[in-house]
Amino acid sequence: MDGLLDLARLEPWMAAHVPGYAGPITHVHKFDVGQSNPTFRLDTHGKRYVLRRKPPGVLLKSAHAVDREFRVQSALAGRVDFVTPMHALCMDDDVIGSAFYVMDFVEGRSFVDPTMPGLTPDQRGAILSEMARVLAAIHDVDLDASGLDDFGPPGNYYERQLARWVKQYRATETGTIADMDRLIDWLSANMPGDDGQRTLVHGDYRIDNMLFAPDGPQSRAVLDWELSTIGHPYADLAAVIMQWQLPPGTEGRGLAGVDRAALGLPSDAEFVADYCQRRGINGIENFGFYVAFAFFRMAAILQGVKKRALDGNASNPEKGLKLGEFVPRFAELGLEAGQA
């Protein structure tokens, strides 16, 4: 036991299940990102790996789905240029205390702040153009050819998602938030009809869940597929726009009040137009609903992070409690987006 992982049990599992395993493990580094599923870099003399596990403790049913993460990335590996090679999945809690999977470690740049300090306007614009390209590519994945046609249930995606996240929110509620209750009512009353679009969706698509080439805008990997499913593509697009409505910096990770043109960053409308052009779509009606829902779902996710922190099950309890403070603001912004 190195204080992070039980290497005495992990090593023989890796040797038996990871093809060409280059052990033994010489160092374990825990990333400070990944509130939901703790993530570790495993260094060996010959190679680096990444291990992503469920957190310990009592968990909500269907949450922390490392098996779903492993399945979707395995299905996409070799078909797209933005998925890390996968190695093995372990659903046996007896190995390190919870389910986990192992994948390649990929060198790349990560941007927590979407203003990307230190880059030129042209470099920033190229990275966000790549972000639009990759998002369109995710939504253009051939579900039958990739074996993912059964990765999500049929029916109206937004009706299903609203029911799911209302249930999750109620299960982790730590006090009444009037704007969350109002937002839930508004979303129910303004639910769009099913337009027949059914694609792979990432579920948490944003710049800090991507790795970019060290010396260019090319995407090396899209990470954190826990919330991926078959659903409506505008959910991912609206989540990007939602993120940008938040305050700038490493806390809000948004672009509110930022002079985007001066920084070389597209406006919301320009990014949406870039995405639509790549997918051959002529605009999006009632986009405010999709953004409002994105705010609600993120508020529900952050409420879950807060509850895990209070229960002592969070990967980073202090950060979890801090993130939980954003829930009322997300609900307020969701209501505003719905009226835009």
UniProtKB/TrEMBL annotation:
Enzyme category, top tier: transferase
Pfam families: APH
SUPFAM superfamilies in the cross-refs: Protein kinase-like (PK-like) (SSF56112)
InterPro entries linked: ACAD10-like (IPR052898), ACAD10_11_N (IPR041726), Aminoglycoside_PTrfase (IPR002575), Kinase-like_dom_sf (IPR011009)
Organism domain of life: Bacteria
Domain Aminoglycoside phosphotransferase: 29-250
E.C. no: 2.7.1.-
Presence of the UniProt keyword Methyltransferase in the record: no
GO molecular function, one term: transferase activity
Name of this protein: Aminoglycoside phosphotransferase
